[in-house]
Design goal:
With 375 residues, this protein is of the alpha/beta class. The protein is built from 11 helices and 14 strands. 40% of the residues lie in helices and 25% in strands. The protein is globular and about 70 Å long.
Length: 375
């Protein structure tokens, strides 16, 4: 018998409460929640009691949790850049799972690589890569004629509307003020390092939308067709919307084209995300439900010719992508099985997002600087 993986969890907010902690508790043979780390003392105490983690294993800083030992793996579920925490976990010899974004700058990625050495035991939380419907789509695309285009559309309502069913704890009122200010200062510094003067206008869009949401689509595009070879156009509108709608056009290896249209629509009735691959002989498309509706079906539709007829086949998968993702993390930690996305993929997405940001800056007459100046 293999002992459960002793996991330390950093960050007990939305994604932890709605997704990851329930899945960990559902798999006691694979996981033991051995320690918790959270800035809010009240949240830490409540979640600690729910998860059966004693007060002696509850920590308000990652340094304290790592110093206490007795964990084999680190799950980073906090907001913001995860580079410093990932580097600390890797230096401690732990297998590391981190929610996106891995980092905001290429300099941070270099630090993570140095901490990882040759171990490579980091998994980036792109759960859609583990969805069985998406895995099947990748197989079908690999067997299809050269693709003509990949088209993505995201209709993103407010998080509050997507999470109404999740019975989350109220937003904490006891976050240490000094820590909150420090995190805000760090965010601004990283935005400026990535984008230079343009960070004032598009820094939040870069960190919050591109590296906070669009990266999921970039990860799927990579698995299907490779990273974009060029970003040729990017536009954000309306001018006063926070966040705005985005249109992104790019080129893919082999002559294919990429289009992404991402819309934040606060009052839209339901989250909708579609990804379609078109080739000379048909189409392969996926429709994803809200990620917070666990076990809601992802729909795969395959369109092709059958004699003189059009053949449309629809497959639905109720297997939960988040669950498959965490079981893959267990296999990485226990058996060294490679993750679907890690440090290299996180770096590739920063490069692409900086290229998009450079196009957005140019369209608005902004001066791009920092790392983005070479994008």
């Amino acid at each position: 018998m293999i002992e459960p993986l002793r996991v330390g969890v950093m960050g007990l907010g939305t994604v932890a409460q709605a997704v990851h902690l329930p899945i960990l508790l559902r798999h006691p043979d694979q996981f033991q929640i051995a320690a918790l780390c959270e800035l809010s003392p009240s949240t830490l105490a409540v979640i600690g009691e729910r998860c059966g983690v004693p007060a002696s294993r509850q920590f308000e800083s990652l340094d304290a949790m790592l110093a206490a030992g007795e964990v084999e793996a680190l799950m980073i579920l906090s907001s913001g850049s995860h580079a410093a925490a990932a580097s600390a976990g890797l230096r401690a010899g732990l297998a590391v799972f981190t929610e996106k974004p891995l980092a905001y700058t290429l300099e941070e990625i270099d630090a993570i690589r140095a901490a990882a050495g040759n171990a490579g035991r980091l998994q980036l939380g792109y759960m859609k890569l583990y969805d069985p419907a998406f895995v099947r789509a990748v197989q079908l695309v690999s067997e299809a004629p050269p693709l003509r285009s990949v088209e993505v559309s995201v209709l993103h309502p407010s998080d509050a509307s997507q999470l109404a069913h999740a019975a989350l704890l109220p937003a904490p009122s006891d976050l240490p003020a000094e820590a909150v200010v420090k995190l805000g200062d760090q965010l601004h510094l990283l935005q400026e390092a990535a984008l230079g003067p343009a960070a004032v206008e598009i820094g939040r869009l870069y960190t919050g939308v591109l590296l906070g949401s669009v990266v999921h689509d970039l990860a799927m595009v990579r698995a299907l067709a490779g990273d974009p070879t060029e970003i040729q156009f990017a536009h954000a509108w309306p001018a006063k919307a926070r966040p705005p709608s985005l249109e992104i056009l790019g080129a893919l290896a082999g002559g294919g084209r990429l289009s992404i249209r991402w819309h934040y629509l606060a009052s839209y009735p339901a989250y909708r995300e579609t990804l379609a691959v078109h080739h000379e002989e048909g189409s392969i498309s996926l429709t994803f439900p809200s990620p917070y509706l666990l076990h809601a079906p992802t729909e795969l539709t395959v369109t092709g010719a059958d004699g003189g007829f059009e053949r449309v086949a629809t497959l639905r998968s109720n297997v939960e992508a988040f669950e498959e993702e965490l079981l893959a993390f267990w296999r990485l930690a226990r058996h060294g099985e490679a993750a679907a996305a890690g440090i290299d993929e996180g770096r590739a997405d920063i490069v692409t997002c900086q290229r998009i940001a450079a196009r957005l800056a140019a369209a608005s007459g902004l001066t791009i600087g920092g790392e983005g100046a070479s994008a």
